[in-house]
Amino acid sequence: MMSRICLASALALMLNLPILAAAPATGVSAPPARLLAPFIDDSTFAIVRLDAAHLDLPASANALWDVAIADPNRRALARQETAPTVDKLARWRQDFIEAGGRELFILISVSPGRGRPAPLLVATGSKSDLEPLKHLLQQDAFGFGHYFGSDWQSQILGGVVVVGLSSSMERLQMPPATQAASAAAGRMGELAEAFGALEDLPAQIILNPSHDLRRVAEAVETWVVKGVPTQTFTRGVRWFGLGMSLAPSIRIRAIADCPDVVAAAAARDGYRQVLLDPQGDVRKVLPKIDALMDSLTPSLQGSRLVLDLRDTQARELLAQLLPGPVEFAHKQAMLRYAMSGLHQIYAATAMYRAEHKDATPPSLQALVDERVLLPEMMIGPLSGKPYVYFPISITENADFSLTICAYDDPAPAHLDVTAVVYMDGHCSAVPVNDAFWQAVAKSRELAAKAASQPAGGTLESR
User: Fold this and answer.
1) Which residue, among 86, 93, 133, 103, has the nearest Cα to 31 in the 3D structure?
2) Is residue 28 part of a domain?
3) Of 150, 163, 351, 443, which one has the fewest beta carbons inside 10 Å?
4) pLDDT in tens, 283-306
């Protein structure tokens, strides 16, 4: 599996994203491989292609939620949580198209100089004036400045708009003959084949490591799984392509192009062994992999392995792939909401004390009655129950960085992580372990002590 090749290469050399570019809009799009040739060298191992003109982002997001989340209430919540991001991307896509853009190509390279990936985008379109595209990219809607830091810039170079690191700009301005020498003509031919084989699917990724990167992968990892040498894929697969469409219908198309029929048959056998490995990562992600083996086994078409899943089969695969990551993302979102709510509770206690000569608010309801907290803010999103609040005096002699002011109760939902705000005002996602419950017990003791004082209030307990 070519993805393992890239991961092994990345571990050895460290990922580096060169640049972001918008290709010339000339009325007729140039063939993608020829268009990308000036930007590809031996360190480039993956290319993502996005057809902005045919990517319906809202419909695609809805399709993902329909497949990934069975419960209608949680599905509606997921749509609500992601709507701002989806809307922002949809608006940017529309602006991009209006500026003359059509396709985005993201080139990913490995090199020893940088520790994280960065995209190289090449955009095709229907306008010859590149200034609108440059202006759009310069607005930094995607957060390039945050990603690259201060060392990023945008320029029009050789008929494309380029956004990236200054060092990448210097490389791009090398004489054409030097750049051409770094990109083998054979790889350009393979990329042209891959783009054609993936047809018109709007989202595509092609893995096509250079010979040197394949050798690195073989050195890093000799065996993919027991009985399947890495060379089955590093030398037996010329390129791997994956295309996907989510709307109006779901389709997944994957192709592994091999030197000959023998290599293709060996790659398919190795691929099946990887899928069925009882100790492998695939089974961890797809615990019901055995039921999907028929639909996940590619057909042997000459020297190519082809897997083309449509509608029902594609949905079955995504239904197993997506719930885990979606559930994780949902939990992370709920933790963020919980910490946001706890931050507001802490701010409300500070306002209450300011109005009551440093007196401690006896309960969350007292904050609502004082109109410094909305009633709905008393409910923790993780538990669906009221936040647990400890009315601890600010004159208490304790380490407030370890003393809990309030938390979202993990007990009802059997959570392993919950949100906490401490008496010094900082919020944190905290593992639910013995140390957490010890902190809860200590904070409850301090609250009980405050409640026993003449100026104390009542205690809300778990």
Assistant:
1) 103
2) yes
3) 150
4) 777 777 888 888 889 999 999 999
Average pLDDT score over residue span 141-164: 65
- Output the six-digit token pair for 243: 């295309």
For residues 89 and 130, membership in a common domain is answered with yes
- 457 within a domain of the structure (yes/no): no
Strand, coil or helix: 162: strand
Query: What would the pLDDT profile of 53-64 be if each residue is shown by its tens digit?
Result: 888 889 998 888
Whether 286 is covered by a domain: the verdict is yes
Domain hosting 196: range is 2-321
Residue 362 lies in a domain: yes
Same domain, 220 and 268: yes
- Model confidence at 311: pLDDT above 70: yes
Question: Is the same domain home to 186 and 52?
Answer: yes
d(CA 48, CA 242): 9
Q: DSSP label at 378?
A: G
Question: Tokens 């003449």 map to which residue?
Answer: 454
Q: List 40's β-bridge partners, or say none.
A: none
Angstrom distance (rounded) from CA 62 to CA 269: 36
Tell me: pLDDT of 35 over 90: no
Residues 89 and 49 in one domain: yes
In this prediction the pTM is 0.68
Pair (357, 265) in one structural domain? no
Residue 178 neighbours by CB distance under 10 Å: 9
In this prediction, residue 350 has a pLDDT band, given cuts at 50, 70 and 90, of very high
CA 422, 455, 348 angle in degrees (round to 5)?
Answer: 40
Query: Structure tokens of 60?
Result: 């695609």
**Distance in angstroms (rounded) separating the CA atoms of residues 70 and 319:** 9
208 neighbors 49 (Cβ within 8 angstroms): no
